[in-house]
Amino acid sequence: MISTVFSASVLAAPPLEVSAPTIEYGLLAPLFIIMGAACVSVLVEALVPRESRRGAQIGITVIGLLAALGSTLSSWSGARYQLVAEQAIALDAPSYATWTLLIVFSLGIVALFEERSGGTETAFVASASTVPGSKLEREAVAAHLQHTEVYPLMMFSVLGMMIFASSNELIVMFVALEIFSLPLYLLCAMARRRRLLSQEAAVKYFLLGALSSAIFLYGTALLYGASGSFSLGAIDAAVSAQPGSSKIVLAGMVMVSVGLLFKVGAVPFHNWVPDVYMGAPSPVTAFMSVATKIAGVVGLTRVLYVGLGGLRWDWQVMLAVVAVATIVVGSLVGLVETEMKRLLAYSSISHAGFILVAVTGAFTVQSGMAKGSFGSWSSVMVYLTGYALATIGMFVIIAMIRRAGGESTELASWAGLGRSHPWLGALVTLFMLSFAGIPLTAGFIGKLMVFTAGWRGGFAWLSLIGILFSLVAAYFYLRVIWVMFFRKPGHAAEDVAVAPLSIGGWIVLIVCALGTLVLGIVPQPLIEMFDNASTFLR
Amino acid sequence: MNPNDYLILSAILFAIGILGFLFRRNAIVAFMSVELMLNAVNLTMVTFSHVHGSLDGQIGAFFVMIVAAAEVVVGLAIIVTIFRSRRTTSVDDVNLMKY
Amino acid sequence: MSFPILTVLALLPVVAGVVVLLMKGRAARLTGMVVSLAVLALGIVAFVAAARGTDLTETHNWIPAIGAWYALGSDPLSMTMVLLTVALVPVVLGAEWHVGERTAGSGGLPTSVFFGLALILEGLALYCFVSVDVLLFYLFFEATLIPMYFLISGWGGPRRRQAAVKFLIYSLAGGLVMLFAVIGVGVHSGASGKSSFLLADLAKVSFDGSIGRYLFIGFFVAFAIKAPMVPVHTWLPDTAEQATPGASTLLVGILDKIGTFGMLRLCLGLFPQASAWATPVVLVLAVISILWGAAMAATSKDLMRLVSYTSVSHFGFMVLGIFAVTTSSITGSIFYMFNHGFSTAALFLVLGFLVHRRGTADINAFGGAQKTAPVLAGLFLVAGLATLGLPGMSSFVSEFLSLAGAWGRHPVYVAVATIGMVLAAVYVLRAYKRTMTGPVTDQVAEHVGKDATGREKLVLAPLIIVLLVFGFFPKPMLHVIEPAARATMSQVGATDPAPVVKEGVK
Amino acid sequence: MNAYVGLISMLIIATLFVCVMIGVNLIFSPNRKNLSKHQSYECGIEPTPQPVGGGRFPVKYYIVAMLFIVFDIEIVFLYPWAVSFNRFAALGVFAVVEMALFIAAVFVSYIYVYRRRGLDWD
Amino acid sequence: MSPLESALFGTDPWWITVIKVVVLFVILLMWTLFNVWFERRVLGRMQNRLGPIMNTAFIRGMGQAIGDGIKLIFKEVVTPKGADKIVFYLAPVISGIACFTSWAVIPLGGEVSMFGHQTRLQITDVPVAALFILSIAGIGIYGIVLAGWSSASTYSLLGSLRSSAQMISYEVAMGLSLAAVFMFSGSMATSDIVAAQAHPLVFGGFNSHIPGHYWLLLLPSFVIYVITMFGESNRTPFDMSECEQELVSGYSTEYSGFPYGMYYLAEYINMATLSAVCTTLFLGGYGAPWPFNLIGFLDSGWFGLVWFFLKTQLVIFFFVWVRASIPRITYETLMGLGWKVLIPVSLVWVLLLAFWRTAGAQGWLASPVFVGAVVVIVLGLIAFIMFGGSQEEPPEPEPVVFDAFAGGYPVPPMPGQTLPDSYDIVHSETAEAAPAGAAAGPPGEDAGPTATPKGAN
């Protein structure tokens, strides 16, 4: 028999002491589903003829996301919490909660990806490899080409975010960070219009992102050096065992935080945010501002609370300073912005600051949180939910307000739209009020909880600064309302039109608006949900 | 072997990477600086792996390598694209948004 | 469970307001008016029921995690304010029946929008007055800003938008400072996170020491901005100058009362110690408000600004009465809050009619209007007299009560404050003289040729009647209000000073 | 003695040899400059713009380089697995399934590139 | 023990190492001279001619090669104008160093006694020797790329790019083909691999005494390796990088004097290196072939050298043979072969091998279900290869919509051209991109201004 031939020819080597790792495939199903869907999407790109690709991609993406959602929810409701895949991934309630949020919002963003605003083309470039302004590009546009690769890219990104939010090991976290960042870099460069800006945004995002992840990685290596393991639990044990915090641990902590804060968009690691938000295609901006923020914040809390809980007194100070800087810069610079996407970028920066207030507070079960109340984590999640709803809603609206040559994002061109389209004005008003944290919107509940959590964690002064600067931030949100309703449409607003929206877009818009309202009035179920999900497995 | 030497070397490499990133205006050079930083991290990890007598650090280095490669692919794609449309890779020339 | 009358009372106008916003033209107006009258009826029913001792309280769990309750209460203080609110809104709607057409030239929005917003504002304000949960109160306190912002910026003078923004920024600033205090209350009401915002629960928590003071300051600043006190009053004159009279009436007559209401409810009620600590400063500010408002009113060249400055002065009286903390001073203040709503409404509206005719609010542009529009002039005079607190008008009763009550504790402040009363006579009468008496100028003859229309009379009549009735028979109202004052006194833990005045009681 | 001494001595000798030979060549070589000798070769006409400092080449080569990186990284993971494959008795099917999945994942992108004519050289 | 200190090679005294290095170095140089002669002669014979007239020089012309080399030293070194001088001279140095260094880990023979010391006929061995060879090959590519880049010549640049693209493409396939070897040997150390091949084949319990050389066991891998060998060495039929008709002399166009000689030398040494690696990994290295392995002394000690050089020379002969018989193929065929055939085939082969061995270890080969499944999979794969071969047609370019503003000012349509739908004309504000066919303000109640083509006014 040939098999014996083969085996006889093998060098007689001693067997390694390796046992097969236990991988809980059932529990990890959401990840596998998304990964599988993304791979199938790539195959569709390769094998399906061009004209039927679009439908196939949307189908696969939506079905994949829904299946992952169902699987996540079933695991969550079954409270199947454990450290899986050799402790590399923590499937705990926060993970499931974050996954749910990520998937739900991604579903909304799929609608944005597919939004054609009454025309025939999405916001994505016809052929990314052509040189802007070249004959090839014109041909690609004329041939109605379009990149349907954006769907698999988005799915890979979602996959990375899900792993990132639930990773219990720094190396896994780093890999996940890159899995979700790399597709985003590419997506950024794929705007159909203003392609030079888009490419520029991608280069900036990429270079700074790569720098920050390298810094994160160095921090990871230092923490590994200090503790002998990449696992958060082991790092925590090693850190707690030492009476004083060693320099190497502190350096590692700072560098890891830098990487995470970059993704969150906190000052002084915020430089990329406005440019990238402006340059990227709007659906991608929406995706970035919502999903990246959720994943980044959850990752940050997991690393800080689980892995570096013992260093609380050290990182709280650092984070407090960053939070103040973020709030101040985000609010003040936002005041002078006149471009909607940049404005939303600064808004996103200041929101990151408000979120950091709660993260800094670190009011958790460990620091004496009572059952039935809420701590830092759940407050942050409620805040993020409200923020995400308003952000996605705003981006749907940005996709609607158009002029020849694409979206019209100059604030001045929005003048008077509130009057000619009262419902549009009402929706923008609602979202802006939610951003500003005016009561009866989701934004208010979020702000209330975030500042309460910060205060309970012993950072009353930080909450005060946050509150004072939310007034400043409120000013620029209100200015949008003001422009829409009361400013006379000037030269800039000529030939600005409100495009019709697809059904998917409408659904997303309405869900966002209703969600913002409902969450502002009856937030209890959501708070309870996140509250029950706020205990990290360690 | 004295692990400190390796750690210091990797720290120096890392610092060179950061400085290169900050002070060189060419996107490709900046990007190569980042790659240098990643490799410095690899050295750190492998050194610590030796210190702790565990394989974790070496496996980590493997992952870093693969990520670095993926980053190269994506990053160079972006840089090449912008080079093709702008004919420059200087980060200072990439300034449409600074107004 | 009994009929949730308070919820219906507050929610009806909000819902109706939204409906009206969606409607157009005459139907919208009629609907708005009918609803406001229905709310008035409902409000009176609720007021009477509460006065008879029926418990209208509603308490439901709202956000247990935060400790917030959907809790509405019907104590006399609340109900007085409710009565004021429900009474003023129909009047304002009547007065602004044509606001859309009137201001269409300057980019005004349709009338239906005004009606809708006014109703929404009414509902939110009602919620504010009846809620007995700090967070709920805060929620509506902030929410009122939105309709008010649109009410100001939608109709009126050419710089109304800037005025509206100024209003909004001031109010938001106050609101956010208050948010800080609200969060603080929440944090400190529960040691390990199980907090409650219910007033009844908070009464059991003691906010002593510096934290109480900080929180007090937070609330007080918000309320001081709302009830415009010097030095944070500057938004009011600008706003009143630019806004349409109806909006000004709603703003000064109802919305600003939330400020004084909040001082009574939250500042005194929750932080007695801190209140005592802050009293000297507050009183000084109150007296300054009285004098500054009066002085500015006396020198004002714009009728609307004048009215707004009188309000600044009057709010000073109210604050003085509140922080004097005697039964009669507080009673006086509450009654003043009630009266001031009507008197200032009368003044705003009647001047609004005049100004609309003349086309400008400049005092010097008038002269001799008495002869061309005698009815309006008469109404102006009555409203003005009510404002300056002539005996026989209800304002007199309240002003007297609050000053008399405060005399027992702070004679010096009261003495100074009386100067404000004198000045009040000066500015009202001087304004009347400059505008109404004297030779009829050409412009006045041309523009103010038409006397009050039936609608205008119909609108102003109830206001004048209320002012006169309670001027001569204040007993029924005082009967209702006094328990409120006593309740506040017991909350604060203060007793009325002995009849024999002793210097430096405090 | 370290196993790498042999390697290093080989390296040194090779370096010495190469440098010495080129050095000798530079010393003994005649030096008869003329202009056209120093121009880069292009059939005798004025050369086209030069690659040093701004020259460009087809982007196709870039794609090859990227593909190379992808597959080289695959090899990075394949080798340790292959070397230890004999000793994976305890892993059984896991070892092979795991690598199959890995290769399949790479194959997905390979198929994409293939079908999108990324491997064609035209 | 640190893996850096190998038990086998840590024991040599330093002088033995030096001797081995120097001797090997000299052998390599001599052997290159021989190979130059060998190639010319063999080619001559195969083409039924004498070959270049150099019979007179020394031992049937072998001296000619030496003469050529020495002559180069006295030739003028021309540095092209505009070249990057440092890199220009660095490039041949890199190539030269790289071609020698790989030999440090190639085993030339087994254990012998040298001056009273037991030592192996191999300079050193490390656990990752095969990786070392691959990485040195990678460094060799730098020599070529830098040469092309620094020469400031279009031919050089294109030649170097071509050859480096080709080399890295074939390096992937080569690397993949080696994976199968490592799977069988369980080691990357070259000496272990040779030792593993000495194990005789056993057919169902019958010891055939035929050594299990991997060319036999891993035939597909061997074939792939041999093909990639040609790609790696830039030799016919894969010598696109220096095909005279297109690129003059490729990356070395601008080189003269000894730097040019360096490339010449490197090419021949590389050929020898690749043959040696082939010998080591697939042909049983210094082990004696069947039936000589049955005679003990022929398969031990210094006899290893004989077998090794014989086998290597055989592979070099194969190189020459191919050069004589197969014409150069086109570049796209070359790259297509590498990427579309060699890489997938070697990946699939490695996987199949792994499956096969796992199945054997698990005892599944007896199960007909499994065998059936395997057949299905194999058929499926074949089907895929057929199916995957069909490529997507390039998109049918739609008739270009007439753009009335193409030149910046409106022009009327020519006969046969039609004005597009109104919202297909869009004029971007940005000057750099003015594409047609983008959807902007769609028709609707609010889209008044955009709905009218601007050409109307």
UniProtKB/TrEMBL annotation, chain A:
Pfam family of the protein (one): Proton_antipo_M
Job description of the protein: NDH-1 shuttles electrons from NADH, via FMN and iron-sulfur (Fe-S) centers, to quinones in the respiratory chain. The immediate electron acceptor for the enzyme in this species is believed to be a menaquinone. Couples the redox reaction to proton translocation (for every two electrons transferred, four hydrogen ions are translocated across the cytoplasmic membrane), and thus conserves the redox energy in a proton gradient.
EC number: 7.1.1.-
Reaction equation(s) it catalyzes: a quinone + NADH + 5 H(+)(in) = a quinol + NAD(+) + 4 H(+)(out)
Keyword NAD: yes
Cellular component, GO annotation: endomembrane system; plasma membrane
Keywords: Cell membrane, Membrane, NAD, Quinone, Translocase, Transmembrane, Transmembrane helix, Transport
NADH:quinone oxidoreductase/Mrp antiporter transmembrane domain residues: 167-469
Enzyme class, first EC level, given as a word: translocase
Entry annotated with the keyword Repeat: no
Membrane topology: Multi-pass membrane protein
InterPro entries assigned: NADH-Q_OxRdtase_suN/2, ND/Mrp_TM
Chief site of localization: membrane
Protein encoded by which gene: nuoN
Name of the protein: NADH-quinone oxidoreductase subunit N
Family, per entry: Belongs to the complex I subunit 2 family.
Species annotation: Acidipropionibacterium acidipropionici
Gene Ontology biological process: ATP synthesis coupled electron transport
Protein localization: Cell membrane; Endomembrane system; Membrane
Highest classification ranks of the organism: Bacteria, Bacillati, Actinomycetota, Actinomycetes, Propionibacteriales
GO molecular function per UniProt: NADH dehydrogenase (quinone) (non-electrogenic) activity; NADH dehydrogenase (ubiquinone) activity; quinone binding
Segments passing through the bilayer: 29-48, 55-76, 96-113, 148-165, 171-191, 203-224, 248-272, 284-305, 317-336, 343-365, 377-401, 422-446, 458-478, 498-522
TrEMBL record, chain B:
GO MF term set: NADH dehydrogenase (quinone) (non-electrogenic) activity; quinone binding
Highest taxon in the source lineage: Bacteria
Catalyzed reactions: a quinone + NADH + 5 H(+)(in) = a quinol + NAD(+) + 4 H(+)(out)
Keyword list, A-Z: Cell membrane, Membrane, NAD, Quinone, Translocase, Transmembrane, Transmembrane helix, Transport
GO cellular component, one term: plasma membrane
InterPro entries: NADH_UbQ_OxRdtase_chain4L/K, NUOK/Mnh_C1-like
Membrane disposition: Multi-pass membrane protein
Function: NDH-1 shuttles electrons from NADH, via FMN and iron-sulfur (Fe-S) centers, to quinones in the respiratory chain. The immediate electron acceptor for the enzyme in this species is believed to be a menaquinone. Couples the redox reaction to proton translocation (for every two electrons transferred, four hydrogen ions are translocated across the cytoplasmic membrane), and thus conserves the redox energy in a proton gradient.
Family: Belongs to the complex I subunit 4L family.
Subunit structure: NDH-1 is composed of 14 different subunits. Subunits NuoA, H, J, K, L, M, N constitute the membrane sector of the complex.
Protein name: NADH-quinone oxidoreductase subunit K
Species whose genome carries this gene: Acidipropionibacterium acidipropionici
From TrEMBL, chain C:
Database matches in InterPro entries: NADH_Q_OxRdtase_chainM/4 (IPR010227), NADH_UbQ_OxRdtase (IPR003918), ND/Mrp_TM (IPR001750)
Chief location bin: membrane
UniProt domain NADH:quinone oxidoreductase/Mrp antiporter transmembrane: residue ranges: 131-423
Annotated TM spans: 6-23, 30-51, 77-95, 107-129, 135-155, 167-191, 211-229, 250-271, 277-299, 306-328, 334-355, 375-398, 410-429, 458-474
Keyword presence, Oxidoreductase: no
Membrane topology annotation: Multi-pass membrane protein
Keywords assigned by UniProt, alphabetized: Membrane, Transmembrane, Transmembrane helix
One GO process term, biological-process aspect: electron transport coupled proton transport
UniProt-recorded Gene Ontology molecular function terms: NADH dehydrogenase (ubiquinone) activity; NADH dehydrogenase activity; ubiquinone binding
Entry's localization field: Endomembrane system; Membrane
Entry GO CC: endomembrane system; membrane
PANTHER family named in the record: NADH-UBIQUINONE OXIDOREDUCTASE CHAIN 4
Family under the similarity heading: Belongs to the complex I subunit 4 family.
Name listed for the protein in its UniProt record: NADH-quinone oxidoreductase subunit M
Organism the protein comes from: Acidipropionibacterium acidipropionici
TrEMBL record, chain E:
Key word Ion transport present: no
Topology of this chain in the membrane: Multi-pass membrane protein
Localization of this protein: Cell membrane; Membrane
InterPro entries linked: NADH_UbQ_OxRdtase_su1/FPO, NADH_UbQ_OxRdtase_su1_CS
GO cellular component, one term: plasma membrane
Annotated catalysed reactions: a quinone + NADH + 5 H(+)(in) = a quinol + NAD(+) + 4 H(+)(out)
One of the Pfam families matching this protein, by short name: NADHdh
Gene Ontology MF annotations: NADH dehydrogenase activity; oxidoreductase activity, acting on NAD(P)H, quinone or similar compound as acceptor; quinone binding
Keyword annotations from UniProtKB, A to Z: Cell membrane, Membrane, NAD, Quinone, Translocase, Transmembrane, Transmembrane helix, Ubiquinone
Enzyme class, first EC level, given as a word: translocase
Subunit structure and binding partners: NDH-1 is composed of 14 different subunits. Subunits NuoA, H, J, K, L, M, N constitute the membrane sector of the complex.
Family recorded in the similarity comment: Belongs to the complex I subunit 1 family.
Protein name: NADH-quinone oxidoreductase subunit H
